[in-house]
Amino acid sequence: RPPYVAEVGLFGRPTLENNVETLHWVRDIVEKGPRWFSDSGANGCSGLRSYSVSGRVKNPGVKLVSAGITIRELIDEHCGGMLDGHEFKAYLPGGASGGILPASIDDVPLDFGTLQEYGCFIGSAAIVVFSDQDNMKDVALNLMRFFRDESCGQCTPCRSGTEKAVKLMAKPEWDTELLEDISTVMTDASICGLGQAAGNPINCVLKYFPEDYKR
Hints:
This protein has helices spanning 20-24, 26-32, 34-38, 71-78, 136-150, 156-169, 176-189, 193-197, 200-208, 210-213; strands spanning 48-55, 61-66, 88-92, 101-102, 126-131. The chain is an alpha+beta fold. The protein is flat, with a radius of gyration of 19 Å.
């Protein structure tokens, strides 16, 4: 990629591509009407959404709830709260690529277009909840190892950037200036979304969790 299927898809023609979750709602919307679906949202958002919640919560799993729910509502009302002895510290709002947010940002609707100002995005809505027993520096390193392993190796910014970032992030002290440079290059010059989002863990830890990477 490119080309993308919206430009060159089936039979070489522009093709509309929908994910399984989109197609899942077609029948209900046809039967109950679009108003039923749009009114199911929360906090100014529309529709229903499947959030896959894992991490330090009592009842993890896939939660079918109103789109636009906040992380605090999701944890308290649908996941049974935090595990005993754990205090909510941070979360991934959109899987490995979606960035890392602190618990202090717990009132933002989890939906498309609501998290960009914080340097994050909802993406797949694969939410991972962390507690005061987790170090975000270690979390970011684990995420970067994932990007390194999943890189197809086609473009240099992603292939070399993720590998170099892992080595730097594994050190006791981060070279923050160099890591920021690597993150910028991966974002600006990688071909696909994986490389373009690979710097998000670095950016978020530097922005929101200085107490963790300075230990």
